[in-house]
Amino acid sequence: MADQSRDATTSRSGNSSESRAHSMNQQGGRGYDQHQQQHSATTTKRARSPSAQEDASEQQGHPQKKVHTQVAEHYNARPDVGVEKRKESTIFRMKSFNNWLKSVLIGRYARQRDRVLDVGVGKGGDLLKWSKAKIQFFIGCDIASKSIEQAKERYRTMRNPPFEAHFHAMDCYSEPISNVVPPNQVFDMVSMQFCLHYSFETEEKARMMLHNVTSQLKPGGVFIGTIPDAYWIVKKLKSESDDRLEIGNSIYSIRFERRDTFEKFGSKYWFHLEDAIDDCPEYLVHFPTFQKLAEEYGLELIYNKKFHEVYEEASQELDFNQLLFRMNVISEEGNLSADEWEAANIYLAFAFRKK
Predict the structure, then answer these.
(1) What DSSP element (H or E) covers 119?
(2) Tens digit of pLDDT for each residue in 172-213?
(3) Range 14-354 classified under CATH 3.40.50.150
(4) 36 annotated to bind ligand
(5) What positions are marked as the site mRNA cap binding (predicted)?
């Protein structure tokens, strides 16, 4: 992989990348089913429905849909194409790289017999990672109901999963997790991969997100995740000509409405990632604000690195280095393209520990 300072438009040979890669239970599920029976109405209608006024405007084709509605519709519309079909993706290597990086985070912080809450579980693409970590209990939540059904099916077809799992379609940025999770259920870890930025639409949503992360996370428990790097995005936008509102390359684009001011909450942009995200609204996460809010909820930052930095660090470790090849990030056929490598640097990884 190229050094972070290297021009992202410069081609990188497979050999150079390969060379660098070589060098480089207390609570369990008790009380859960009883809680589910008590909240059957909640679990059959998980995600908060738009108001009647919102429904009417949407039926009339009004363009101002609520962002949570747009996000849910976007991910509900994404098919689960299967392993072989995914190999045909134009960003197959980047998707593999992102999966590798999540494996690094989980590998560093998950422990055997952990109880895990995964917010933004999607179609359950990380279930195998959790299985390899030998956790004992898992709850996955996501705003997209169809994705939740696919996650349930993926779990059902796993071979002898070592952990008990439950799945819920709900908006974890607008309603408390206690609507679906019994209050005596304690978690050792919370994971939020590529989705936390939606909570920065408003301070209220960001606070609800952090409440849901911390309210049932045990002291010493860990909160891990991945988010777009607002500093990198804005810096790159500012490096463009004065009137330009968009950055990107052949596989991604980030488009703003304005470039003069960016608020701590509600700084919206539209993100397109080839064969993954179709011009979906997202929000900048001002990391100092995120960290300050997290401290209010008893979280201490213990890790914060850009994806390129995570790669440079973790690829030096034998297990993670070998995983680069097993997960097809690097192979005899090639590695990430220059444009994929640049797109990967949009993101950063973080970890907090509850005091």
Answers:
(1) strand 115-119
(2) 999 999 999 998 999 999 999 999 999 999 999 999 999 999
(3) yes
(4) no
(5) 123, 129, 154, 197, 282, 347
